[in-house]
Amino acid sequence: MRGSCFLLALAVAGCHPDEKAFFGKTYACDPSAARCGTSMTGQTLTCFGGKQLGGGRDFCVEECSQGQPEEASAICVDGRAKLRTCRPSEGTADDPDGCGPDLACYRTDLISDTGVCLAMPVCSVDADCKDPVLSTCASSVLKAAVPGAPFQTSNLQCVVGGCKARQTSCPAGETCLPTVVPATSPVPDICVPSCDSRMNCPPNYVCWKRVSGPASPNVCLPTLAGVRCTASIDCMVGECLDTGEGFSLCSVPCESDHDCARYSDSSHKMYCVPTQDARRHCVPISTFAGSLCLMDVHCPAGQKCFFTSPYSTKPTQLGECRLPCGPEDRCPTRGGLTHTCFVRDDSKSCYPAILGLTCRRNEDCSSGNTCETLPLEERLRPEPPGTDPGTVRVCARPCTGDVDCVDPWMNQEGYCEGGWCRIGAGQGGRCSRDQQCGRGHCDRPGNEPWGTCDYPPL
């Protein structure tokens, strides 16, 4: 930048640039090109990839310096870009976003009044999104995904909503999220940024491939509570908590499961459990089901790639990294969550002890469930009718109707059959009524006695 102004001064007689005004401006850049130059104080500048967020621009910021203490007024992102911090609520009439004329305060925490200054438009409601393509404010997506959560949803980004339902193309550098995730992982129907070449993502997102292994899609996941993370700037809810199990996740402190229900959605049901720092945090079951894999080498040491799911009797297309069951089919508690030996045919893996999982003893099951010997569910029984279905030992609890099988998060965790709550089916599973499909519905063309479960995006 200094060189550019010097050349301009030679070309234009009488050029007396206002150095403070010159360096106070926001300059666009190309992340693949040369560096941005230096700041007024001589600090090296780097190009921050703000274009990853809908409607944003790449712009020059100071580069993080190794060994320097953290600043209250800035935060280091992706290990190299120093972004100014801001408070979404502290704008003025002259500066509504609190970041100056060229930048806006983008919220990075849905609980506290925290954000960073970026070269992008922000929104609080859909009407703030003027781009006909990026026409949905992320606030609307959040309210639909986690109804009733105590979130502050101002100063977020505009996104493409309904990309799968409407078969809408995503902008360059973005991907329609529900088209690249397994059907067992409900996600919002939106376009999300793709990870950059270093597997980095903008604030409020994390690169799925980076935190969940090489078999995972190269897309940026929105980081609500329960999602894996690498640093707290990834998390739009809570802090990045080290689970002690080889990965970290976005979590909030708690005193009871009720505290966690406020932040849970149907894909991340969280329990309040003690963590390795002796405090209690909200920890989700789904994150401990295992990172995605295609073969054992994709998994951490001691784990293997299992192509089984409690929600399907058929092998899954993508596997999940899990611990094999130990002697006497025992499994260790992980992340404060009870695990049981999930048996499917000749495959045995350790899985969070949810309703309907196989077990050998009561202590294998999570609180509220016991290990019972029960007939195979009617929807899974072999043909022809009347064939002996056999029995299974599974984690279950008594019921008199489907309403007794609603979980603490008010989701249909299972359904009632023969006086016991049984686990529901996943996408495409056999069903005779909606309650057998969790948050989905049972599609029975022509009112046939049996249909299949269909799960729409969040």
**What does the main sheet amount to?**
4 strands, antiparallel
Beta-strand percent range: 25-35%
Q: Nearest-angstrom radius of gyration? A: 25 Å
For the secondary structure, the number of strands is 30
Mean pLDDT: 86
SS-based structural class? Answer: mainly beta
| Apparent shape | elongated
Fraction of residues in H or I helices: under 10%
Spatial sequence of strands, sheet with the most strands: 4-5-7-6
Termini gap: 46 Å
Describe the protein:
With 458 residues, this protein is mainly β. Among the domains are: 117 residues, no CATH class; 154 residues, no CATH class. The chain contains five helices and 30 strands. Strands 4-5-7-6 form a four-stranded antiparallel β-sheet, with no helix packed on it. A three-stranded antiparallel β-sheet has the order 1-2-3, with no helix packed on it. The protein has a three-stranded antiparallel β-sheet with strand order 14-16-15. A hairpin with a 2-residue loop joins strand 22 and strand 23. The longest helix is centred in the N-terminal third of the chain and has 10 residues. It starts with a helix and ends with a strand. The N terminus is likely disordered.
